[in-house]
Design goal:
single chain, seven-stranded mixed sheet, two-stranded antiparallel sheet
Length: 259
């Protein structure tokens, strides 16, 4: 078998439309355990598979997170959601990562805040399997099921930080997403219903039953969805605040239970 050189790899990736071909070539070379595996990985990437799925990991908030094929890949903008949670969280808090995907949000929070009690939930079996590996190192617990349904009832009124990176893409907009997301990530992790806020409504409605007094629900939405999200939080009895980070085009709503 002909060995793929770095220059050939870069040329092939560039021809396939990879903007950061040089960086990706280095990552593929580092991840491959043999020339045969490198060739296979290069072919996958050239066919449009996400780089994170091909090499099996990504860096998120400075932490290496395993990412399995088919599982939602955490976006860079979501680092702002985690940073907001880190600002609020305290040592010993009970934390739940809903719609957890890889478990990246909970894993980062556990790495940054001491002694949290961490739980994570996702409805997708592949995501749960991936999250269990990422969260195992920090002593968290991962459940498979629909939002709050699989959580222990002992968590009622005990959750201090509820991270919910729910799907918020409107159904009709799914077809406008880049092919890497549209084809290679679970639709369940993307589709938020007609206006993109269906899952958020369900989470906000139940959140007051689970949050401790003074506890916080944190979600990410698009900038144009922020006003609706604030209204949804308020109707659920949560006190909403909006944070915006232009550099990442990131909008985070924090809802606090005060009564």
């Amino acid at each position: 078998m002909e060995i793929i050189t770095y220059d050939r790899l870069v040329a092939g990736l560039r021809a396939a439309g990879c903007v950061f071909a040089e960086d990706e070539a280095q990552m593929l070379i580092s991840a491959a355990r043999s020339p045969i595996e490198l060739a296979a990985m290069a072919d996958q990437r050239a066919l449009g598979h996400p780089l994170e799925h091909v090499i099996g990991w990504m860096e998120f908030c400075g932490l290496r997170i395993e990412v399995d094929p088919g599982v939602f890949i955490p976006r860079q903008r979501t680092e702002f959601l985690v940073r907001r949670a880190i600002e609020i969280a305290q040592s010993g808090d009970v934390v739940v990562d809903l719609c957890c995907g890889t478990g990246a949000l909970g894993a980062v929070l556990a790495a940054e805040v001491k002694d949290i009690e961490l739980y994570a939930v996702d409805i997708d079996t592949k995501a749960v399997q991936c999250a269990r590996r990422n969260i195992k190192a920090v002593g968290g617990h991962v459940f498979e099921g629909d939002i709050f349904e699989p959580l222990p009832v002992t968590l009622h009124n005990r959750i201090d930080i509820l991270l919910a990176n729910v799907p918020y893409v409107p159904t009709e907009a799914i077809e406008l997403l880049p092919s890497e997301a549209r084809i290679h990530e679970a639709r369940l992790a993307l589709d938020g219903g007609e206006d993109g806020l269906d899952v958020l409504r369900r989470v906000a409605l139940e959140a007051p039953l689970w949050l401790a007094l003074g506890g916080h629900l944190l979600v990410e939405v698009s900038e144009r969805q922020a006003l609706q999200a604030v209204e949804i939080f308020a109707r659920s009895g949560l006190i909403p605040t909006v944070s915006r980070f232009e550099e990442l085009d990131a909008t985070v709503i924090v809802g606090t239970r005060l009564i």
